[in-house]
TrEMBL record:
GO molecular function: iron ion binding; oxidoreductase activity, acting on single donors with incorporation of molecular oxygen, incorporation of two atoms of oxygen
Swiss-Prot/TrEMBL site (Essential for stabilizing binding to COTL1) positions: 103
GO cellular component, one term: cytoplasm
Name of the molecule in the record: Arachidonate 5-lipoxygenase a
Superkingdom of source: Eukaryota
InterPro entries: LipOase, LipOase_C, LipOase_C_sf, LipOase_Fe_BS, LipOase_mml, PLAT/LH2_dom, PLAT/LH2_dom_sf, PLAT_LOX_verte
Keyword Metal-binding among UniProt keywords: yes
Pathway the protein takes part in: Lipid metabolism
Record gene name: ALOX5
Domain Lipoxygenase: 117-683
GO term, biological process aspect, one: lipid oxidation
Residues noted as binding Ca(2+) 1 in the record, renumbered to the chain: 17, 79-80
Residue numbers binding Ca(2+) 2: 39
Native source organism of the sequence: Scophthalmus maximus (Turbot)
Family that this chain belongs to: Belongs to the lipoxygenase family.
Amino acid sequence: MPTYTVTVATGSQWFAGTDDYIFITLVGTDRCSERTLLDKPLYNDFERGAVDSYDVRVEEDLGELVLVKIEKKKYWVQDDWYCKYITVKTPSGDYLEFPCFSWLVDDKEIVLRDGRAHLPQDDKTSLVKQHRQKELNFRRKTFRRVHSTREWQPGFPMSIDANAHKDLPRDIQFDSEKGVDFVLNYVKAIDNLCVNHFMHMFQSSWTGLDDFERIFVRIKNTISEYVMQHWKEDFMFGYQFLNGCNPVVIQKCTKLPEKFPVTHEMVSVSLERDLTLEQEVEAGNIYLVDYEVIDGIRANRTDPCTMQYLAAPMCLLYRNVKKKILPIAIQLGQTPGEDTPIFLPTDGENDWLLAKIWVRSADFQYHQNITHLLRTHLITEMFAIAMYRQLPAVHPVYKVRLGRIQIDYLSKPQSLAAGIICDDAVSSPIRMEANATGGGGHVQLIQKAMKSVTFRSLCFPDMIKARGLDCKEELPTYFYRDDGYSVWEATKSFVSNVVHIYYTSDEALQADEEIQAFIKDVCSFGMQDFDHCEFPKLLKSREELTEYLTVIVFTASAQHAAVNFGQYDWFSWIPNAPSTMRRPPPNQKGMADVNLIIESLPDRGRSSWHLGAVWALSQYQDNELYLGMYPNEHFIEKPVKAAMEKFRKQLAEITSSIKLRNEGKKLPYYNMSPDQIPNSVAV
């Protein structure tokens, strides 16, 4: 009697094991095996991390083995099970691998194909065609798009229909370990930072700028300490636009805006070349930061005891002869006039400092809501849901996805509408009272910012070039750009290798109905066919597909790492990145003093919430997987494994180069180093 040896691997994450009954059916081209219970006498099967083997006997050879059907049935109470993979040794001695990497919940069954990737046009038999279509039909029912404005905020990227985190499909729910890790990190932050005493002291101002050190000194961090010591300096202010947490807003100024009427006489003392301001602009030495998108956003009004304020400032920056970026003019509003003065480095020390603080506060709002939440989390979620809906597990593009994209429901706009600023893992504990865009302003801000989200703006080289910052000679210390280029090119090379393995021609891509449906889903449903978005609705060449997939991988990994994990570095010193301002922006010069600055900055309670959150959000998980790591390998083909190994070697070389550059630097930049880039974002 022919015997097939079945080996089953259970996941090692929390609660992965099960006591439920597990049945298997082997499906061959000639016939199927009997439905067989996988059970060993006096043995605890399917424990967490276990690899168990069983014999399945059949009366006749099954022919070529094409499918494996796994069923889970309740034993006592429903007990979810995470299956990593199944291998089958055939009677002839061949080994077949069937990747799973999925949860089986309730009385569920799952049908697996072997680990080889197949394009839809490559499937010839009705058996595998039917399996492919059945899987997609099931996915589309499971990963439903929201269908009403009651469930989703208009103007946001469209996503999944779920009323709570528990309603999400089990495979994309946030891992229990990571959720617990985040909570523990936050609790640890509160303890380490010794801020418990201040947590509920809302409305209680600090006594002076040095007083902020009382919630700062417990955690040692080279960059954050350097920021604390030098945050008032113009060099530090300008440097952050290049390599801080939000290095995506600075742009070369090719023409002075009419709404920002800076004259040569105002800034001549700050210019180091024998040129007028207009000539400096023409020479490419002037840069602009404009937070126009914040203009008109409603400030937080959730705490009746504390007024909170927003501003939409503009800042003119100068590249001096040492190629450092320095601020030379700040206007704290979009409409020039007597009540909107232009602040200058030659003004009083406190006037200039308060103006810079207002810019930093606006930058914090822009970073949290647009750069981070919208342009990494929500955009990645949009791609992920389209992928789950349109690509079966056997499709090579589904397999090349960067790790398993998980969704934290609390980063969704349903929760955002309630006024919570959210992030990785679970909801960020930056409470809505502690943030100037809480209580609805953040929703308005994201809706406005969506108008600037285009496909080309997600392509890293295009984004850098569009802002006029692509010349390394002009800005030799723009490390975010340089490291981003390296990681982008390495990722693109890897993706291109995989694409060319499976698509032998552009015609093969054009004939792939599933990948074309995925591309259309992103544009028509994810981006809701917004006129401005310029997302493609179809792809005609392998080069286009390579760029498209590189955008997805890069956004979910490198871009997210660049704007997330440096939050404690740059945001922990509260005056350098206030989450809110408690006094309106000054409407005339000469009115700022230390007391006004202190009264403008967040109070003790809000500062404590802020500090604990940015520390927790900047921590890596204990089981973090970094770019290039693929422990859940959905591929079994040797050419793909070779491409993965080449990718890892390229990333290692980039990491070594960055470490060498950072040696001896007071402000090392490592947020784009591959060994610091998790291979996927929790969205």
